[in-house]
Every structure is written in structure tokens, then in C-alpha cells.
Specification:
The protein is of the alpha+beta class and 203 residues long. The chain has a single domain, classed as Gcn5-related N-acetyltransferase (GNAT) (Aminopeptidase), CATH 3.40.630.30. Helix content is 44%, strand content 20%. The chain is built from 7 helices and 7 strands, in the order βαααββααβαβαββ. The protein has helices at 17-27, 32-37, 41-58, 89-99, 102-119, 142-157, 168-176, and strands spanning 9-11, 63-67, 73-78, 126-133, 161-165, 180-186, 193-199. The chain has a 7-stranded mixed sheet, sandwiched between helices. Helix 1 (17-27) packs across helix 3 (41-58) and helix 3 (41-58) runs antiparallel to helix 4 (89-99). The radius of gyration is 16 Å and the shape is globular. The chain starts with 8 loop residues before the first strand and ends with a strand.
Length: 203
């Protein structure tokens, strides 16, 4: 496997959403947001793959891209002026069963995150819904390659890119890719810190 971020970037086939869910689950295992929603690393390890698989399947408005073969990274991109539909009943029931007490926290987080995204210009920007790379392969350029593909679309239209992260370790990575912190607060008030970051549009 190339170590310079030269892995091929392609659209993720829906038949591989389960595989993508496992990649994202491993990438976000220790993320502060998910640790707040699902306490206990072993519990997260067993429940996050299904939750991320459903997120990929339900995010029908998004462009979902993957890096490498075998699959080693996934990124989801939401176009500007696009509303994400509420999850279907099946997903809500499954999430309730897996998140239990964390489900109301997830709902509150989602509401506050949507408000913060709007504050920093999400309505006129591409949104990076999420990005994750296999932990053992992080730092080798694959995440950067996934970002560059999304930047190509945004730059072609002269549009900004916005994202939210709850992991302070990610802030420096995104700053290296021309994002700036636009806002910082806990989401929700009793939740983990979150950083809203913006990469200005290119003309």
C-alpha cells in the first residue's frame, strides 16, 4: 500500500457501506464525541460499525468517497443548500437499541451542531460530514488525499468548506489544509468541546 497518499480516490459503492462503517468505527473509536455518547471502548467497538454503516446508507444527499483498495479511508461531503433528511424509522429504532441513554444526547448534539454549522456559513458551503482513516495508516497522506478531492469540487465553484470536529487532535491537521477555527463551544452545553472550521472559497 502506498504511503504517500497516492491511494486511488473513488466513489464508495453502496454495497461496501458496511465495510466503510467498520473503517469509520475504528477511526472514531476514541473520539471525544463518541466517548460521550457511548461510554466504554468495548461497547463502542461493538456498536459503532452498525451506526456508521447506517449513517452512510441514510446520507443520500452526500458524495461518499473512499481511499485505497482494500478500503482504508472514507469521507462524506454534503453539497451547499442541501438539507439532510431525518433518519428512517429502522435507523432510529436500531440507534435507540445501541445508544440507549446516549440517544437523547445524540439528538441534542445534532440540533446544536446544525445551528453552529449555519452560523459559520454551511448554507453556502460544502460540508465535510465526516472523514476517517484506518488508525494504523493515519499520517500517511490518505486523509489529505480525500480532502483534496473534496476541495476540487468546492474550488471549482469558488465555495468555502465547513466542518465540525470534537477531537482537539484534529484541529492542527485541518489547519494544515487551510481551515481556520471559526467558533469553539461545547455541543451541547454539557457535551464535549467542538470546533467549527472553515476553509475559504477559492476564486
Amino acid at each position: 500500500m502506498p504511503g504517500d497518499g497516492s491511494a486511488v480516490i473513488r466513489t464508495l459503492d453502496p454495497g461496501r457501506y458496511a465495510e466503510g462503517g467498520h473503517v469509520l468505527a475504528r477511526a472514531f473509536l476514541d473520539d471525544p464525541l463518541w466517548a460521550w455518547l457511548v461510554p466504554g471502548a468495548d461497547v463502542r467497538r461493538s456498536r459503532l460499525p452498525w451506526l456508521f454503516e447506517r449513517a452512510l446508507a441514510d446520507l443520500r444527499v452526500a458524495t461518499i468517497e473512499a481511499a485505497g483498495e482494500p478500503l482504508l479511508g472514507v469521507a462524506t461531503w454534503i453539497p451547499p443548500a442541501t438539507e439532510v433528511a431525518p433518519p428512517p424509522f429502522r435507523t432510529v429504532v436500531g440507534a435507540l437499541a445501541r445508544l440507549r441513554g446516549g440517544f437523547p444526547r445524540l439528538v441534542r448534539y445534532g440540533r446544536e451542531a446544525a445551528k453552529l454549522e449555519l452560523e459559520v456559513g454551511a448554507a453556502v458551503s460544502w460540508r465535510l460530514g465526516g472523514i476517517g482513516v484506518e488508525p494504523a495508516l493515519q499520517g500517511q497522506g490518505h486523509g489529505s488525499a480525500l480532502l483534496r478531492r473534496g476541495f476540487e469540487r468546492a474550488d471549482a465553484a469558488g465555495l468555502p468548506v465547513v466542518l465540525l470536529t470534537s477531537n482537539p487532535a484534529n484541529v492542527g491537521f485541518y489547519e494544515q489544509h487551510e481551515f481556520e477555527v471559526a467558533a469553539e463551544r461545547r455541543l451541547p452545553a454539557d457535551g464535549p468541546p467542538a470546533w467549527a472550521m472553515v476553509r475559504s472559497g477559492r476564486h
